Amino acid sequence: MPAPLWTQLIAEKRATLACTPNLPRIGPTTPLPGVWLAGDYTDPEYPPTLEAAVRSGLRVADLLISAS
Ligand SMILES: Cc1cc2nc3c(=O)[nH]c(=O)nc-3n(C[C@H](O)[C@H](O)[C@H](O)COP(=O)(O)OP(=O)(O)OC[C@H]3O[C@@H](n4cnc5c(N)ncnc54)[C@H](O)[C@@H]3O)c2cc1C
What we know:
Layout: H1 50-67
The structure holds flavin-adenine dinucleotide.
């Protein structure tokens, strides 16, 4: 491969939450009836990844089904 003509490194320090030990997560529930949160930042176990996003979506889907 030839060397790239141009490069730039971007370090986005706010792209995700800080993965520090025992960091409390917001979770899927809200005080509003019928409103739940899904997103990587809500998963209580995984770091903010695609896996956490999918798990959070499945969790909220279960909550929606059990509430209906
Ligand atoms: C640079 C980078 C690299 C990554 N690489 C990996 C990787 O290799 N592997 C991995 O597992 N994870 C990776 N991740 C993390 C992964 O992208 C996220 O964990 C995942 O996309 C989170 O999915 P989400 O649905 O929770 O949120 P998002 O994908 O952020 O989706 C949220 C959506 O809501 C929209 N939105 C926000 N506010 C509003 C509003 N007010 N009204 C309407 N829409 C709104 C946004 O535009 C966005 O489309 C990476 C993240 C970054 C930033």
